[in-house]
From TrEMBL:
Keywords: Hydrolase. It is an enzyme of class 3 (hydrolase). PANTHER family: D-AMINOACYL-TRNA DEACYLASE (PTHR46124), HYDROLASE (PTHR46124:SF3). GO terms for molecular function: hydrolase activity. The lineage of its organism: Bacteria, Pseudomonadati, Pseudomonadota, Gammaproteobacteria, Alteromonadales. It comes from the Bacteria. Its EC number is 3.1.-.-. Belongs to the metallo-dependent hydrolases superfamily. TatD-type hydrolase family. This is TatD family hydrolase. PROSITE patterns: TATD_1, TATD_3.
Amino acid sequence: MIDSHCHLDFPAFDLDRDQVLLKCAQLGVNSIVIPGTQASMWLRQILLCESYSQLKFALGLHPYFLHNYRTEQLQLLDQQLSLHQGKVVAVGEIGLDFSLPTDEVLQERVFSEQLNLAHQHRLPVIVHHRQSHNALIRLLKKSTFCNGGIIHAFSGSLQEARAYIDLGFKLGIGGTITYPRAKKTRAVIAQVPLSSLVLETDAPDMPINSKQGERNSPSYLPLILDALQALRTEPENDVKQACWQNTLNILPNISN
């Protein structure tokens, strides 16, 4: 299994990161993607991934941290993508979060500029969304970007899911589907093509059902897979194999 989105570099894991990774390996979670969030954290990410063979990294500017944004951060991102060519798996976590006080015009500009960098470096993207599906789909359609990627923690409508899939994206499936009350998201995930799904935890955030209030962990990925298998009509092993292959297809540098 591959956890396509986990912030294992966050301080929440500083005391037991080795133990968490050992447990993941025992459970068959053999690759974990750590998305970037802000320029000041990129070096920490890269050094961490160089220390553990099962960790892979993406680099990007998350909309949550744009209050510290400076234009030279895009230049630095361009440099780091070149320096780590073949190792960096995606540009991300990038996107739009309209629940934040950050200027929406600035968010859209930085997102579009990061799409351009991903296009230039022939990399997929990992996309964050909140109250922003319409704007994201509009900008993706307008852009020359064509490398696809993952819509992180997808929770939109079936129409939005199909729009992203038509644009070459996979849908990141995490702890939300473990909650019976998440009827809309569960119904959508049951209907979209199996070829469009990848697994993720977003640890230490987005705890799964029965673990509310606790630190989320990539070791819970098998429980998310269990929930997905229960929603799908395909044989359980087909679901597991498809999620693994889908992730490799959209993030091919994982295998490097």
